[in-house]
Design a protein that fits this description.
The protein has 7 helices and 7 strands, in the order E-H-E-H-E-H-E-H-E-E-H-H-E-H. It is an alpha/beta fold. It has one domain: Rossmann fold (3-Layer(aba) Sandwich), CATH 3.40.50.10320. The protein has a 5-stranded parallel β-sheet with strand order 3-2-1-4-5, with helices on both faces. Strands 6-7 form a two-stranded antiparallel ribbon. The longest helix has 20 residues. It is globular, with a radius of gyration of 18 Å. It binds zinc ion (ZN).
């Protein structure tokens, strides 16, 4: 991308492979639809028991190409010690000021049995979004002018320990890009050897099928909003942009309590 500013969507997560797992199908779909999409990794993801910085970078680049996303940046903040600190907020807010996204997708959720980076990353992204718009502070952001990020969307970790009640929630139909997502995840061979990849593939197929099935999609990815979903037209909102009156009914749905 020759002029990587004015993104429609900038997706941010702590580790290379987080975004692929959480919302790779959606990112690939956005690219197919012609939106300007970028990916930001907060850390290299190293050290881990299985990788090296160089290998993880090559894997992230291969995954970027698999998804078709034209832009990916690594902030090189410390893995395993990622914290929501003022200095890290400045670093990410500088990225927001430079690339001026309309929508930021934030990997989100507490993962107490996995990396603490995930929750710190969420806090950091939220704070950096706020810092990005502040006036009289340009010296903290390489002299770049303020940029207000209009929309924040959460991509929740599927193993979040908390069943949170988010104000808004929606599911993106990734039936057409689920296989692309799987190919992108497969690029991380340092983290997922054949056996681990088979397990992850099994999990993602079930998880994304279960999520998507709630809206009648073959595969879906779940997102949350910090605010309720706004609507200018009840009919369009309820149709979910599909142009059909209602989601496809699932077999057996009549038997559900609220079916
Ligand atoms: Zn991670």
């Amino acid at each position: 991308m020759t002029d990587p500013s004015g993104f429609d969507v900038l997706a941010v997560a702590p580790h290379p492979d987080d975004l692929e797992i959480l919302c790779g199908g959606t990112l690939a779909l956005l690219v197919k639809k012609g939106y300007r999409v970028g990916m930001i990794d907060l850390t290299t993801g190293e050290p881990t028991p299985r990788g090296t910085v160089e290998r993880r970078a090559a894997e992230a680049e291969a995954a970027r190409q698999a998804l078709g996303v034209p832009f990916r940046l690594n902030l090189n903040l410390p893995n395993r010690e990622l914290m929501d600190t003022p200095a890290n907020r400045y670093a990410l807010a500088t990225v927001f000021r430079r690339y001026r996204p309309e929508i930021v997708i934030a990997a989100a959720g507490r993962t107490p049995a996995a990396s603490p980076d995930h929750y710190q990353g969420q806090l950091l992204i939220e704070a950096a979004r706020f810092y990005s718009q502040l006036t009289k502070w340009d010296d903290r952001f390489e002299g770049l002018p303020p940029h207000r990020v209009p929309q924040l969307v959460y991509a929740p970790f599927p193993f979040d320990a908390e069943q949170r009640h988010w104000p808004g929630t929606f599911i993106v139909d990734i039936s057409d890009t689920f296989e692309t997502k799987v190919q992108a995840v497969r690029c991380y061979s340092s983290q997922f050897d054949e056996e681990r990849f088979a397990r992850l593939h099994h999990f993602l197929a079930g998880h994304n099928a279960a999520i998507g099935g709630r809206c009648g999609f073959r595969y879906g990815e779940l997102f949350h909003l910090p605010v309720p979903v706004g609507s200018a037209d009840l009919v369009t909102t309820v149709r979910g942009g599909k142009g059909s009156p209602a989601p496809v009914q699932l077999p057996g749905k009549d038997h559900l309590p609220h079916g």
